[in-house]
# Entry
Amino acid sequence: MQSNITISLATPHVTKARYAELTGIEESTVNDMIKDGRLSSYRHRLRKDGGRELILINLAALTLDAISSHELKFSN
# Structure
């Protein structure tokens, strides 16, 4: 018998401040995690001239990584 698991995300991306709030990690640590590659992020341009950017954390990628990198065990 095949089991289905549903995971839903309210949003696929969040700001650094929101990620820090959700996880309880200090924002300075979040910045360090982005710099050393532990967090998947991208820069979103808020203006066409690129003068202002917003760094967003990719929650969808983190969720997929967490699921695929761990061995799931089920008990009946």
